């Protein structure tokens, strides 16, 4: 039995990574979980300059999950290159750098500066607001999504994963758009936009008013979108959204995901990913699957 998966020419030892923004860049979790056990570590979003993020309060608990409006706070590409890449390189795991920006030029600058770094893949977060288009996310307009994919591909030395927003009418259309732009893989779903009101204070719970909802409550929506995307494109799909157990991860794989990403669960169980790796392995033995690819997308 073989746990290895091939994502756009990059071989992971198993199909499990972590969702950007839920694991820092690895150092915060290294004392709780053996990073060598993960197929890949996906970093927090990295921008061309440091971002302060949104004002507080910016995290709230919701039924079956949480809501955040952290706003992609990060120290910028300079600190990331000097501090985070050398730290992660100590471990036997693939490094996926999540890239964010406010304009096409921002994204391309980061991608270009990562071209000669020892990282394995790039994940482009197109849920960022496009400042030049009045704030609509790059990932909400198929034309914009295709164009930004084409732009970053010109500068990328590593395979490019486009991370899709679920806040769209048709996830299939968005997946096809980034595939047309040259994406090597897609990952989905990012958080779903939500709102929570404090009825005692009669005000919004988050300073930003809205935030991204994640956790078990969104899992069935994520499975449906992964299924739709996987059946619309030929590139590999990395599935995420409310995965808290091996069963959740296996569901994503059966729906068409070649790999999975664990997010919110890391906050309350830092070792959850290793349990999921073990659980997938047990399932494969029990069901007689020789490889992860043998079970990918078999539910039609």
List low-pLDDT spans.
none
Query: What's the arrangement of strands in the largest beta sheet?
Result: 3-16-15-10-9-8-7-4
Number of contiguous helices: 8
- Percentage of residues in DSSP E strands: 15-25%
Number of strands: 16
Give the CATH class: Alpha Beta
Query: So what's the oligomer here?
Result: single chain
Major beta-sheet overview: 8 strands, parallel
The residue fraction in helices comes out at 25-40%
CATH superfamily: Aldolase class I
Query: Strand-and-helix sequence, N→C?
Result: EEEEEEHEHEHEHEEEEEHEHEHH
Provide the CATH topology: TIM Barrel
What class do helices, strands and sheet pairing give?
alpha/beta
CATH architectural name: Alpha-Beta Barrel
Question: Would you give an account of this structure?
Answer:
- The chain is α/β, with parallel strands linked by helices.
- The chain has a single domain (5-55, 71-192, 213-295), classed as Alpha-Beta Barrel (TIM Barrel), CATH 3.20.20.70.
- The protein has helices at residues 77-88, 104-114, 142-155, 171-180, 219-230, 246-255, 265-268, 272-287, and strands spanning 5-7, 10-12, 16-18, 40-42, 59-62, 65-68, 94-99, 121-125, 160-163, 185-188, 192-195, 197-198, 203-204, 210-214, 237-240, 259-262.
- The strands form 4 sheets. The protein has an 8-stranded parallel sheet.
- Helix 3 (142-155) packs parallel to helix 4, helix 4 (171-180) packs across helix 5 (219-230) and helix 6 packs across helix 8.
- It is globular, with a radius of gyration of 18 Å.
- It starts with a strand and ends in a 13-residue tail after the last helix.
């Amino acid at each position: 039995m073989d746990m290895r998966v091939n994502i756009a020419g990059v071989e992971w030892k198993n199909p499990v990574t972590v969702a950007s923004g839920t694991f820092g860049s690895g150092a915060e979790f290294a004392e709780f979980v053996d990073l060598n056990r993960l197929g890949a570590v996906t970093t927090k979003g990295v921008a061309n300059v440091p971002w302060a993020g949104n004002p507080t309060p910016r995290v709230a608990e919701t039924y079956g999950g949480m809501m955040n409006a952290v706003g992609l706070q990060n120290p910028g590409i300079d600190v990331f290159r000097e501090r985070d890449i050398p730290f992660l390189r100590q471990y036997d795991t693939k490094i996926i750098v999540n890239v964010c920006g406010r304009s096409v030029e921002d994204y391309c600058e980061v991608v270009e500066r990562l071209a000669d770094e020892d990282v394995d893949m790039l994940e482009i977060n197109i849920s960022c607001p496009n400042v030049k288009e009045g704030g609509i996310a790059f990932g909400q307009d198929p034309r914009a999504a295709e164009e930004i994919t084409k732009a970053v591909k010109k500068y990328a030395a590593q395979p490019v994963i486009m991370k899709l927003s679920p806040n769209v009418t048709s996830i299939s259309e968005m997946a096809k758009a980034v595939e047309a732009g040259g994406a090597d893989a897609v990952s989905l779903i990012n958080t779903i936009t939500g709102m929570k009101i404090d009825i005692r204070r009669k005000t919004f719970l988050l300073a930003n008013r809205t935030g991204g909802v994640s956790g078990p409550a969104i899992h069935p929506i994520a499975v449906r979108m992964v299924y739709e995307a996987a059946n619309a494109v030929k590139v590999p799909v990395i599935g995420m959204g409310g995965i808290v157990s091996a069963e959740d991860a296996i569901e994503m794989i059966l729906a068409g995901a070649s790999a999975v990403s664990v997010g919110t669960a890391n906050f309350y169980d830092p070792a959850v990913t290793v349990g999921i790796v073990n659980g997938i392995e047990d399932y494969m033995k029990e069901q007689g699957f020789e490889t992860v690819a043998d079970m990918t997308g078999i539910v039609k």
